[in-house]
Design a protein that fits this description.
Helix 1 packs across helix 3. Strand 8 and strand 9 form a beta hairpin. By secondary structure, this protein is α+β, with helices and mostly antiparallel strands. 29% of the residues lie in helices and 34% in strands.
């Protein structure tokens, strides 16, 4: 069992909840936060657990504890999140890649795992290109991207290219035609590998996206798993009313 599989300590879970409340501005900075006894009762934990969580918040600079005066929230200045609109997905992904900076963490040709082989439609063990990148905006990391593509597709560009240009742009420049993409959005917790790369704590909540990019024949030419900091990244989608239901707004042709 690795660190990512271990359950979070109770104090860390309380810390994560209080951290979110502080960041969202739920505690007015000009007034003291509820005391340890009140927070302990509210969250169903001991006072010692709350105290340890507050110590972690103080370490992060998110609260200040004044003797005899209480604990005061210090919410950080909220950065403008990088926004990705699901309407015109491919175009938005290309534009985002051009306006952010990337750091290439890993790059290699490796045997496809059963999961990746199933997504790419290749035999398990067949060689695929695998890369791990971290994207930053305004000097702050916001996404951790693990991409796998078929070997013949990957040979169309070099490691150096991937460190400089968006992967989708490289695919198109190498002659690949991008027709559509499918993606699933959920949430995951940052593990011991991802957390330091995104400058978050182990166990921090992250937006998780799995995306498959296909060519006109339906072949998957990119399988991507992405983790985003929710304080730095947001999805937008337009909805139109369809009778009693809401449906995604169609992109213009």
């Amino acid at each position: 069992m690795n660190a990512a599989d271990l359950p979070l300590p109770l104090y860390h879970r309380v810390y994560l909840v209080l951290r979110q409340l502080v960041v969202e501005g739920k505690f007015p900075p000009e007034a003291p936060m509820p005391g340890e006894h009140e927070l302990a009762a509210e969250h169903g934990v001991s006072r010692i657990t709350v105290r340890r969580a507050l110590q972690m918040l103080e370490r992060d600079g998110l609260v200040s504890r004044r003797r005899g005066a209480g604990t005061y929230a210090r919410p950080p200045a909220a950065p403008e999140p990088v926004r990705d609109n699901l309407r015109g997905l491919i175009e938005n992904l290309l534009a985002m890649g051009l306006r952010t900076k990337v750091r290439l963490i890993e790059f290699d040709y490796v045997p496809a795992t059963p999961d990746i082989a199933a997504v790419l439609g290749v035999p398990t063990g067949e060689v695929v290109q695998r890369s791990v990148r971290v994207r930053s905006a305004r000097g702050t990391p916001f996404s951790h991207l693990t991409a796998c593509i078929p070997e013949d597709v990957g040979r169309g560009f070099r490691r150096e290219d991937l460190a400089e240009k968006p992967l989708l742009a490289l695919l198109e420049a190498s002659g690949q035609k991008i027709a559509r993409a499918e993606q699933t959005i959920s949430a995951k917790l940052a593990d011991a590998t991802v957390a330091p790369l995104l400058a978050v704590d182990v166990g921090a909540a992250l937006l998780w996206v799995r995306r498959q990019v296909c060519d006109p024949a339906g072949r998957v030419i990119e399988a991507l798993e992405a983790l985003y900091r929710p304080d730095m990244y947001a999805y937008q989608i337009g909805l139109v009313r369809d009778g009693a239901m809401w449906s995604p707004e169609r992109a213009e042709a």
